[in-house]
Amino acid sequence: MPISWDPQSQQFHLRTDSVSYVMQILDNGWLGHLHFGPPLAEDAAYTYLGPRDFLGFSNRQREPIPLECPTAGSGDFRVPALVVEQADGSTVLDLRYKSHRVTPGKPALTGLPSTYVEVGGEAETLEITLVDAVCGLEVELRYTIYRSRPLVVRGARIVNRGQTPLIVRAAMSASLDLPDADWTLLTLNGDWARERQIDRRAVRPGRQAVASNRGVSSPQHNPFIALARPSTTEDRGEVFGFSLVYSGNFLAEVEVESFGSTRIRTGINPEGFAWFLDPGAFFDTPEAVLVYSAAGLDEMSQAYHELFRTRLARGTWRDRPRPILINNWEGTYFDFDEKRLLEMASSAKELGIELFVLDDGWFGRRDDDTTSLGDWFVDKRKLPGGLESLAGKIEAMGLRFGLWIEPEMVNRASRLYEAHPEWAVGIPTRPRTEIRNQYVLDMARPEVVDYLFGVLSGILGSAPISYVKWDMNRYITEPFTPTLPAWRQGEFMHRYVMGVYALYDRLTKAFPGILFESCSSGGARFDPGILAYAPQGWTSDNTDAIDRLRIQFGTTLAYPLSSMGAHVSASPNHQTGRTTPFNTRALVAFFGDFGYELDPTRFTPEERAQVKDQVAFYGHWRELFQFGRFHRLVSPFEGDGNDAAWMVVAPDGRAAIVGFYRIQSRTNAGPKRIRLRGLDPAARYKVSVWPATSTPEPAPSLPLGGDVLMAQGVVIEGNRMNMEMGDFHARLYVLEAQ
Ligand code: DGJ
Predict the structure, then answer these.
(1) What's the gap in Å between 105 CA and the centre of ligand 1?
(2) Is 471 a catalytic residue?
(3) For the segment 483-535, what is each residue's pLDDT rounded down to a tens digit?
(4) Angle 373-334-329 from CA coordinates, rounded to 5°
(5) Angle, helix 386-396 to helix 338-351, in steps of 10 degrees
(6) d(CA 367, CA 61)
(7) pTM, to two decimals
(8) In what order do the strands lie in the sheet with 20-25?
(9) Cα-flanking dihedrals φ and ψ of residue 517, to 5°?
(10) Is 541 a catalytic residue?
(11) How many CB atoms lie within 10 A of CB 373?
(12) Are 266 and 330 spatial neighbours (Cβ–Cβ below 8 Å)?
């Protein structure tokens, strides 16, 4: 069994072949943390890793005692995992062990996204209940360990078993104490159109945090951090990953205290948060996924990719190859009618594209972004026959049809706002802030969720719709809902997210055949929480291939390729003005859910030929790109950032594709070797360059061993590339085992 309990040493040991997580009930009943990291022998007691007596201090407060659920105000001065205000206004808690139980599998969370099991015995869950005798608060700490994954999934339920109401002011999903501070902190930061850029810095004494207070997980920071040893690389060294399965305001924080230990906590951002608990009521935190790897960042990412792709994402499309789509947004923006869309679709169909997505502008009277959000009825000026006619004609061409929606929003200029101004989030006594000319609907109101479910079900059922792009284009300001009393307003931001999850849940269940893609001004809500409903997301509004190298590279630290929408767009690029070779754009976008974001009727004959080849190539290798094992090879965040490389390998190791990218040409550059990973060392691979016509450099004529490709790599001739390709060069190596 992966979870063992030893009453004699009072020790819990969660163990797989790759990790151990050890806890102990200390003499006074506190739940101490002993170890998370490499697997330890199953039958030993690790009491000596626990705290030692510190003479003269009744509560041993001078020691940085590692605890599973630390609280504040009684001697632990580090950041707490739980803060609960009691009837007298005090917040001190003393949580002591009460009971525990081990269950097979993993219980689901109600109303929140969570990882799951599919076959019995795949995982076990330990629930440990701690209690504060004074106020009656109970904390159920949950730990799930999967037999074959190097990770622990954590979360907590806070239950008020006392006689008076309590206010939860902070409730972390996980808090972990590590015994030293020799770590670097990796975070994914950015902003609109430059999401998830990797930052790595040393941890220092004191606190370092990333967080969101925008109502979405945000493009500024992602709810993922990692602690890696300074010497850790992609394929060597220790790293811990911390990922929060949540789409709203989050906090991920690291604190190094004065004795040099490190505490990490992650959960809902306590800033602005307060949850009122009547006697008998409970609060569930979102869950956090803690990964440990002794073999570098690559192995940590593999653990997240596989868990998120196969045990967080769900539904019909989880394992299904994703269609090659074309989206009209950058091709037309708001300026289209049925005729133009059908011309685009027909042109796309000739090129082999499989799905046509109609983006923003099909409803109300939306000719720009000032009106109509909330008015989910077809604009008959543009589409006289409605969606049914358009989708029907597109289907008749042999393409699937997809539709953009932005359910959570309303424009002031809309019928919905006229009818229900009170549904827009805001404080009645203050002006509401408009962002992109729109307000946010109060998703904390069940009637808003019901209304949206009704109206959107009507649309999705009115035409053959196979795909939905669910957008969310602004942050939340003036957080407030008149549906809650004054003392409960701190619940609003979390209730909003729960409302979004409820709507996603209902729509995905009502339309199980539809592929949902999440979006939030590009990648502002690209997080594990949303992945539980939409198995893919629009990675960024920035479609520039060169900027995408960093965005996609950073995203893969925690997210699988199958979750990343990646499209070829027109050149010069609409976000950066940069002109890049056509194939370079495709060779970057192949590493994700591939598609196009342009007007295909404007292609030159040469571009049409290229697109046909790209579509055929991606179609052939799609499952490898979407579901293969992904490895980062050369980081655009390191060195001079001029080169990048990555690869995908088939699960059986029989095929692989390597992408190499050079941003600016290098004069008089020597050959560069890119060492590959994840191949079968005993296999011999035929190596070809794709497309064959794009490179002056012949592929190696003889098959090469997986061993030599991993030890020495493929060789890239810098000079030839310069002369023939200039800047923004990209090439693919296709490896097939003989
Ligand atoms: C933001 C999205 O990220 C874009 O792809 C596009 O759908 C626009 N919104 C439409 O308003």
Answers:
(1) 39
(2) yes
(3) 999 999 999 999 999 999 999 999 999 999 999 999 999 999 999 999 999 99
(4) 100
(5) 20
(6) 64
(7) 0.98
(8) 3-6, 11-15, 20-25, 31-37
(9) -115, 125
(10) yes
(11) 30
(12) no
